[in-house]
Every structure is written in C-alpha cells, then in structure tokens.
Amino acid sequence: MTTLNNEEILRYSRHLIMPEVGMAGQEKLKAASVLLIGAGGLGSPLALYLSAAGVGRLGLVDFDVVDATNLHRQVIHSTKSVGMLKVESAKARINEINPNVVVETYKEPVTRDNILKILANYDLVIDGTDNFPTRYLVNDAAVMLNKPNIYGSIFRFDGQVTVFKPKDGPCYRCLYPEPPPPGMVPSCAEGGVLGILPGTVGLIQATEAVKLIIGAGKPLIGRLLLYNALDMSFRELKIRRDPNCPMCSDKATIKELIDYEQFCGVGRGNEEAAPAAGAEIDVQTLKEWRDQKRKFVLLDVREPNEYEIANLGGKLIPLGTLADSINQLDSADEIVVHCKMGGRSARAQAVLNKFGFKKVYNLAGGIDAWSVEIDPSLPRY
C-alpha cells in the first residue's frame, strides 16, 4: 500500500503542505526503496533522515561492529551499541524513529558475487563507503543495472558529493578513471575526520535522494560539490561523461564485474609498499626487546598531534617528512617503525628500504595494538 494512512498524513504534514512534495511526492517516498552501502559516518545521517522523511524501504549493508572510536561521528549508534553489528544498531534506531519504514539488513561486505542481486531490489544506491575497491564496485553495478548512485566522500575537513545517473551523466570512472596508488590516500582512521563533517555530507546525499525520488529540483548530475568545513565554503566543478569511459560510454569495454581488489592494487601489484618477509614484528616481540634492553631505534611516523595523544617514547619523524629527514637516522641501526595501526609504518619501511636501510621492522597493529595488548592505560584514539 503506497497510499498514506491518517497517522502518516499527520507525521508528514509539513511535507504535504509543500507543493513540491504534496501527497503525490510523499507517496513516491513511501513507495521508494534505497540501498545504503555502509552504516557508518555517512550512513548514519542518511539512515536517520531518509527514514524520518518516509522512504518506505531501506537496505543497510555493513559487516562491521560498532567501536568506541565511531561514536563521535556515527550518530545513529550509541554507547550501548558498542560491540553490536552496525546494521542491527542502525535498524533498532530507525524503528524508533519511524516504525513505518521496512529495514532490510545485509551483514556482509558487498562483492562482485552479491551486489547485483542485492541492488536489483532497490530504486537507487547511496555510497557511504571509505575504500576504493567498493566505490568502483558500486559504480559498475549501478551502471549495469541502470540505477542512480549518490556518491559522497569525507576526509578531515573536506567532503565531496555528486549524483551518478546512468545515461544522464558521468559515472565514477569518468571522474576517477584510475584508483590512486595503494596507501597514497590515508583512511579516516589514519588521517582523522571532523565528527560533524559526515553529517553535512550525508545530509546533502539524503537531499539528493529525496529530490530524485519525488522528481523535484535540479540534482547534482554532472556536478561535483566540494565542501570545506574549515572555510565553510562550497565549490562546484563540472564533470562530463568520458566518451571513452570503459564503463558508461558507447565504447564501454567492461561487460561484467571485475576483481576490484586487484584493480585497486590491494594485496597485489604493491609489493614495494608491503613489509618484506620477516620484517614485521608484533607488540609482544617489541615488549620483549624492550625488556631485554635490546639496542634498536623506535621510529614513530605519525603526526605531532597524534604523538601528543599517546606515544611509546620513540623518535618522531612524520611519514610526509621522512625522505627529507633521512639523515637523522643511521642505516647501521636496527629500526622498528610504528604508526597508529601499521599502514603508514609499512610505507615508511619501504621509504627506508629505498635509502638502503636493511634492518627495518614494521610494528604490526601499531600503537593501537600496544594499547590493547600491552598497556591498556595508554589512550586509544
């Protein structure tokens, strides 16, 4: 039933008195189905506001659990949700906001084996992910199924939003034909993100979804909206269909979903950035070395503000300045490199290897693992 009952008429009355929405628009929202990829920073405001707006069916895809570090930005979850599957936590909150919404949960990662089957049951998809393989996967599946794809991304103080609508505008591959080299773009866990930022970006995505559903306004098709929270500025860039795009052009060469991990160089083709065999130690080994008073240099490649939060007393040289500061280190020394979780330190290890440093070890799990396994009094962030 897509007609509104009396309770729904009262609930959505502020929509109904707007001529751009009215009864017809609200009934379109009730009949609509939206798939949210990710129930984290962007997925939180998306799920909250689309359910409140009256979208009839929401699909939530996420296999992660709620962590304490999520709570400053993933506002659909609460402290009591820590340890719960994000999709279950989000579903419970949506049911509290609007029991008229049907919530379908997928406690699994999207892959080339399942995404077409999942997405086929929805009118549009909203990308709230934070990794390149999934972004390309969502894009390609949306193009193949002729589904609008509302894209958003966040990092530190910056956000991006656009709408990819097959046949009416460009796709993600037109904007980013090739993924960046592995490790070149830090994750939010490594680089940080202003907690308020995903709220702004996610609400813009939600606005675009409502506009598409009710057929009102001018969607962000062919326009990339850039937002900077520090400047409180918005800029807009025009993006056009690539006439040679392998996915959405008339000359498309991609006819089926590919291996996206391989395409983005995750785990393959980036051997230079990975620790060499035997060049990684865990935090238990590091503790043993310290207890044994073994002679080595502990190198911290995080940023100074991270060092202030928590540190192991190592020598601080941020990854971005390491190549220019190489003379501060002695290649004859045994060096253990660490960062927050192990990603930047692996790249630092590769830099040191290029400069001829042979005795370099990457600390698996970084200072975060040290806090969990060795010293719980050390703050986690």
Overall SS class: alpha/beta
CATH architectural name of the largest domain: 3-Layer(aba) Sandwich
CATH superfamily of the largest domain: NAD(P)-binding Rossmann-like Domain
What fraction of residues sit in β-strands? 15-25%
Radius of gyration: 23 Å
Query: What is the domain total for the residues?
Result: 2
* Mean pLDDT across all amino acids: 93
Q: Any idea of the CATH topology of the largest domain?
A: Rossmann fold
Number of contiguous helices: 15
* Percent in helix: 25-40%
Number of strands: 13
The topology string of helices and strands comes to HHHEHEHEHEHEEHHHEEHEHEHEEHEH
Stretches where pLDDT falls below 50 for ≥5 residues? Answer: 267-275
Q: Walk across the major sheet and give the strand order.
A: 3-2-1-4-5-6-7-8
Top-tier CATH class of the largest domain: Alpha Beta
Main sheet overview: 8 strands, mixed
End-to-end Cα distance:
47 Å
Shape: globular
What does this molecule look like?
The structure is a single chain. This protein has 381 residues and is an alpha/beta fold. It folds into 2 domains: 232 residues, NAD(P)-binding Rossmann-like Domain (Rossmann fold, 3-Layer(aba) Sandwich), CATH 3.40.50; 103 residues, 3-Layer(aba) Sandwich (Oxidized Rhodanese, domain 1), CATH 3.40.250. The protein is built from 15 helices and 13 strands. The strands form 2 sheets. Strands 3-2-1-4-5-6-7-8 form an 8-stranded mixed sheet, sandwiched between helices. Strands 9-13-12-10-11 form a 5-stranded parallel sheet. Helix 7 links the parallel strand 4 and strand 5. The protein is globular, with a radius of gyration of 23 Å. About 2% of the residues have low confidence.
